[in-house]
Each structure stands twice: as C-alpha cells, then as structure tokens.
Amino acid sequence: MRAWSRLLRAYAATTRLLSTELQAEHGLTVNDYEALYVLGRAEGRRMKRVELSRRLLLTPSGVTRLLEGLEDAGLVERVACPTDLRVSYAQLTDAGAAKLEAASCGHVASVRALFAEHFSEAEMEHLAELLGRLPGVSEGDDACGAA
Amino acid sequence: MRAWSRLLRAYAATTRLLSTELQAEHGLTVNDYEALYVLGRAEGRRMKRVELSRRLLLTPSGVTRLLEGLEDAGLVERVACPTDLRVSYAQLTDAGAAKLEAASCGHVASVRALFAEHFSEAEMEHLAELLGRLPGVSEGDDACGAA
DNA sequence: GACATTCCATTGACTCCGCAAGTATTGTCA
DNA sequence: TGACAATACTTGCGGAGTCAATGGAATGTC
C-alpha cells in the first residue's frame, strides 16, 4: 500500500534532512530535541522517565541512554523523588533551557520551511490530523516545536 | 509543529508494530521486505545497488549491509555486470521470490488492517498524496506491497 | 597514453535503540 | 509480618544504519 511505504520514506527523508541540520548546528539529535522540548513544557521542567518514554515513543532503556547523553552535556539533571525511591526525575537545567531556546529558533524555522514548501496551512493541519489517528501517535499531545 | 512531530511518532509506532510482526513470522525487517519487493518488480528481478539505495532511501553502505543479510539467507544473489566491472547487481533468487510471496500475504493484510482501522480509502489516498510531496518520497514510485 | 576526476561498492568505527535480564523499591494480601 | 507481584529504572548484548575512508574501475582531458 502506497500510504505505508510513503510513510516509511517520508520519515527517512525528512528525518535525515532535519537531523543533519540539528546535529550540525547544535549537536542534538531529533530525539534529543524532542526530549528537551517536552521537558521544557512539563510541570516544573521535570518529568518521570517512564512518562518521557511514553511521550517520545521510546522504550525505557532508550530513555536512559538518551538522558545519559543529555546529562553528560549538562542539559538535564537527575533528581530523586522523595516519596518513591524507584523513580528519578529528569529535570531540565538552566543550560538545557538555554540550549532549547537556542535550538528552537532555527529548528522550528527549518521544519516550517520544509513543510511550507510543499503544503498549505490547511494541508498541514489535515496531515497532522490523519497521522494523529494512528495508534499511540497523539498520546500526550501538544507535541513538538513552538507554533 | 504538530505535523512534524506526529510524523516522527507515526513512524515509530507503526514501524514497531509491523516490524515485530514481520520479524516474528518471516524473520524479515521492514527494509528487508521492501528490498525483496522492489527487486521482485524490477527488470529481470535484479537491480544495481545504487539504484536500490535510491529506492529505499538508504545509503550505499546501508544497502551493502542489508543485502549481506539477504545473501546469507540465500534470498538474493550477487551478480557481476559484464559491461561495467564496478557495479554488481542484486538478483532475487527463487528462494527469495518464494519468501516474498509467502511474506506478502500476511504483511499486506496487516498493513491494510492497521490503516483501514483508522482511515477510509479516500483518506489513505489523500495521506499518500500528501506524504508523496515531501522531497524524495515519490522518486521511483509504484512503491510498496501489492494492492 | 598518462593524469585527475568521478562513480560503485565495501569496510571499520560509531550511534541509536530495542530486547531480555537484573536490581531495587513499592504495593498487596495472607 | 513475610511472600509475591508489580513498577521504575539500568545494563549487556546485538541489530541496523550512518559517516568517513578506501580501493578498484570508468571517464574525460590534455
């Protein structure tokens, strides 16, 4: 089916493009960015790791590894939960917030540029709506980059 | 932008689902399947590796590795080109064609099921059309699984 | 006919991420 | 209370794919 194969290709193509750019300009992967973004909008700029894994559609181990990198870069801190010793929050640091701010600007512009080149506002809306119907896609929504 | 973040999530979600199934039933990844499929419809069931990398949106090295697996499994053969010693064709074997046949049935059904559950025919068409506008998505088209 | 250039393909080192297994903590129910 | 399940997270291993570097072959230029 065309829709399916195109979804594969669309992902591959756009990801490659945007990821390369984000990497070159800020040293972040797409998922790094999404993680910072999600944390930035979260209550107290922190979030349980499990929560994060649901938002990003990653497995818990994926989240651990993702945060490893962000922690090493000082963008995210590990904060223990006082009431439940099992959980540890991922908390955006000031550096992380600054990084997010810095990256947002260019990244959002790139995304907009890429999509606006091929779609009208209404079509983007429609595309988002359609994709949102697939299972699990619009879980904890409000999602991606500012605007 | 919602459309972008949902594209990411849609890919992650659907891929995970369908890939797991394909893996369990036939030991193929999604890209393995796409490769077999593309080869199956190619002139003489063979294709230059560069060509394949364009169709699958993989880098040449990605193709080399992908075919490595398929060759080990006896689904694809390496055939030299007489007129240009640089190129080597990937040629679908009879076993490969059989495997494709076997996998197609279930896989196509799964894909259809997944999409049909959430979209009407017209919506799928529309979705495919929208995704196809993104750069590089509808290159060498006719694309995916029988239908 | 020698040279640089370009193209096809492969390899090694790396990243990202999923799976399965393991640990630590919490909750439940006898 | 103590046993057992469930939850949150981490870790070892492996697969898949990228990039950069390489080698071999074809092409264009003088």
Oligomer: homodimer
CA-CA gap between termini of chain A: 32 Å
Most extensive interface, chain pair and sizes: A-B, 49 and 48 residues
Number of helices of chain A: 6
| Mean pLDDT across residues of chain A | 90
Helix content range of the residues of chain A, please? 55-70%
Low-confidence stretches of chain A at least 5 residues in length (pLDDT < 50)? 142-147
Q: Would you count the extended β strands of chain A for me?
A: 3
What overall form of chain A do the CA principal axes indicate?
globular
User: Biggest β-sheet of chain A: count, sense, barrel?
Assistant: 3 strands, antiparallel
The value of Rg of chain A in angstroms is 16 Å
Strand content of chain A: 5-15%
Search tags:
homodimer; 147 residues; mainly alpha; 3-stranded antiparallel beta sheet; globular; disordered C terminus; DNA-binding
Structure description:
2 copies of one chain form a homodimer. With 147 residues, chain A is mainly alpha-helical. Helix content of chain A is 63%, strand content 9%. The first copy, chain A, contains 6 helices and 3 strands. The first copy, chain A, has a 3-stranded antiparallel β-sheet. In chain A, strand 2 (76-80) and strand 3 (88-92) form a beta hairpin. In chain A, helix 1 crosses helix 5, helix 2 (30-41) crosses helix 5 and helix 3 crosses helix 4 (60-72). Chain A is globular and about 50 Å long. The two termini of chain A are 32 Å apart. Chain B binds a DNA duplex (30 and 30 nucleotides) through residues 16, 29, 31, 48-50, 58-66, 69, 84-88.
